Amino acid sequence: MTSKPPPICTEHNTEKVWQQTVFEYSEDGVSVKVQNVWAWVCPEDGEPSFTPETVDALIVTVRELVEIAKRAKKRQPALTEYAVAVG
Ligand SMILES: [Zn+2]
After folding, report:
1. Over 60: is that where the pLDDT of 54 sits?
2. How far, in Å, is the centroid of ligand 1 from the Cα of 15?
3. CA dist 34 to 13, 58, 78, 81, Å?
4. Domains of the chain and CATH, by start
């Protein structure tokens, strides 16, 4: 994917940069953030474009985390933010 020319941000007319950013996913009022995910990022506003391969690789885990977070919310409605690290 890095052998192709960088995609252009149509809004700012600039070349996007291949770098690590935050993958964010929201569903039913729950949002999940995954740190340090590679994506094409607009240097003007930081808007990321994730490749389909990246989304496919992450989406199963992210959806599982959403289900866990929903159960946690029912159990402890006062707690609204959890951070999880795996390494
Ligand atoms: Zn842009």
Report:
1. yes
2. 9
3. 27, 9, 23, 14
4. 8-75 (3.10.20.860)
